Amino acid sequence: MKWHQIDPYALYKSLNTDIGTGLDEREAGRRLQKHGPNQLLEETRTPWPILFLEQFKDFMVLILLVATFISGLLGEYIDALVIIGIVIVNALLGFAQERKAERSLHALKELSAPEVTVLRAGKWQSIPSTEAVPGDVIQLDNGDRISADVRLVETMRLAIEESSLTGESLPSEKDALALADDSIPLADQHNMAFAGTMVSRGRGKGVIVETGMKTEMGKIAHLLQSTETMMTPLQRRLDQLGKILIIGALLLTALVVFLGIIQGQPMYQMFLAGVSLAVAAIPEGLPAIVTVALALGVQRMIRHKAIVRRLPAVETLGCASVICSDKTGTLTRNDMTVTKLWTFAEEWDVAGEGLDATFSRAQKASSPTESKDVHALLYNGLLCNNAEMIREDMSRHSQLQKHGDVELNGEPTESALLLAAARAGLFPEEAEQTYKRLDEVPFDSSRKRMTVIVKDRHGHRYVVTKGAPDVLISKCTSARVNGETRPLTEAMIADWNQTVSRMAKQALRTIAIAVKPLPGSGSYQATDVENEMTLIGLQAMMDPPRSDVKEAIEQCREAGIKTVMITGDHVETARAVALDLNMLPTHGEVMSGQQLDALDDHELQALIGKTYVFARVSPEHKLRIVKAIQQNGHVVAMTGDGVNDAPALKAADIGVAMGKTGTDVAKEASALVLADDKFSTIKAAIEEGRNIYDNIRKFIRYMLASNVGEILVMLFALLLGLPLPLVAIQILWINLVTDGLPAMALGVDRAESDVMKRAPRDPREGVFARGLGSKVMTRGLLIGLVSLAAFVITLYGTGIPELTHAQTVAFTTLVMAQLIHVFDCRSEYSVFHRSPFSNKPLLLAVLSSVILMLAVIYVPMLQPIFYTTALYVNDWLLILALAALPTVALGWSGLRK
What we know:
Protein name: P-type Ca(2+) transporter
Number of domains: 4
InterPro entries: ATPase_P-typ_cation-transptr_C, ATPase_P-typ_cation-transptr_N, ATPase_P-typ_cyto_dom_N, ATPase_P-typ_P_site, ATPase_P-typ_TM_dom_sf, ATPase_P-typ_transduc_dom_A_sf, ATPase_P-type_domA, Cation_transp_ATPase_P-type
EC number: 7.2.2.10
Main location: membrane
Largest sheet: 11 strands, mixed
Low-confidence stretches: 221-229, 393-404
Strand content: 15-25%
CATH superfamily of the largest domain: Calcium-transporting ATPase, transmembrane domain
Mean pLDDT: 84
Membrane topology: Multi-pass membrane protein
Shape: elongated
């Protein structure tokens, strides 16, 4: 028999599992070893030997290998060996860079993989989807991505979107009934949930029957990538820039070779010099270094609890000018606690921690069970609830919250209602023994309510609804007052609205409760009975702002970033929280969803610039808000957690999903996931995004200025009819020593002190904007001139012309000028703006480069290979003075500005 034919009891027996406790950890581990990880076969990663050999495919490396071959034919075996050695070392550096980038991106993919909620040893817990095994009891909720094939055993209005597997565009309604036909198509297997599909409505429970390549998705070998790897716009621009630089470098190199030959320089030497100069001048390592810088930035973001799902987001983060943030859980702690109870007859205050709480009315302590209305308010809040209370042996779950001596597992609002009832001595296990749930319509952000139908021991049925006060009062025709049901009058409605507004101004979130008895006979669905109900009252809860949010909002304001609150809460609640967080300026406006509906797109675009708070909005409103802000020329970061938030998250320049409370749908639509759901994490990610872009600019400036200096020292010498200041091997060695390690170390440089005091970067900004192009040319020109000056002074100023000595001085000056210049690259302003000791990897890289340079100057066996000779104290005084001149002079000029 196939899985869809088996009834639940036969299913449990077949998979040796228990629907009440699930598998224990030891058995789950054994099954994981037997069946392997729950994942589809991925594209094979390039083996490291192949990755290393691919380093030799570069056009310039092939030219060097040709030069090596020619050197060997001409008997220049030392030159040939040195060139091949440098090629191998360069290949090793390139291999290390690509390997690091590959590993970082692979780790990024693993971090953003979805989790599943399974029952292990009687406790619900979240685990990586790769660790799910056959026999695991799994919970499915609205917005979950299903990661294995599941036989459903319980469903509550469950519908699953299966287009990725069956091609059906409409969600498939699910139930738990066994099917007789063994050849029924996948699209008609209503008791099955398949890997790769998505819960679009309701919730359910099931047992995993197949994992990995044994799932239906695995059988058709359709690989779903949860993380896209793509080039960022900057990488694409640098790729185009690299092609232009190759053409320019080859033309300049050809000019140098031509000038050398017509001046009588040996053709072989000029050929080697030309090839070496071309290799040194072309920044072929730039794309790899950019990738590594992006990957390192991603790793730093992870330490800040920000998980990047799409690499282009790293670059876009630095351009963000508006953050649209949810209130609950992002700006506030999402740690709801009921502090007030209100009925049409009385108002109560609730205070305390955990189960130890005090109920009082008119400032006098009292028991809530003395009031029939308050008892009904608390008890029905317990019935229309899916949260769980754990009092001992706590499990780890993504939504577990501690409240003194109890822990609550579930959505924060429902957890608050559950705790309020428990404080009054009303516990969920007792309610479950008295009432059986028959039907449920889960909470939906567009409906703003949740409804259940329950039946008591005597067969009496009731509807219980909880939700937004303004929504529920429109569904009611009566109210409960002192234990009696009375018609809802205009005066009572006015009193209700006034109370909701008063509590909202106190930053309290209000949840209304309503009930309705049903006749004993007939069939009902929850959606059909949400009318002519009886209003019981309000439970008002406090959700305090996060302690770090006010400072983060102020830092964003200093960085030119506007923070906008978007919430489904009451207008006055949103206003009170915004004022508390200092995010609503004097001229700032608060707009409701109703007001937003009354505006056309042009009117909204005109008003949105001065609006800082949007309240009582739906997910559909979020999309309009994002588009209106974008039309005003802003780069928008947008937070969201629900299924209906996905369109707005996709439309935003940077979609930001909540890691704790966010659905898989929201996470997949986003570019960034906040592991801790904190607003301050968005600020930290934007700061890191700006720093990453700054660091990329730093090593572009460093590498290109160094390359310009190398070309110009050779070009100027030939134009002046001078001997060659550098030989080919020295040029290759400079490229190896100065371009690699220091450039990599710039990628881990810390942000400048003003990184969050600048205006956001224009996303259309070119690579060489803000003076980068002029800095590259001026630094490169000066580096070339001082190197040439060192060569000329040594060759002609001592009275004893000695070419090798002069070339050694020029070689050393060029290396030292570039290594000193790397410290200048750390600041947009001046080398004196930053301590040279604040980047330890850079100090280590520079020290390593100096040691390698000294080795070829002073080690006797290396001197004939690199055409060097030992230098004297006077030489070093000249070298250090000239090498420091470009950086010190321009640094002083920048400091004065």
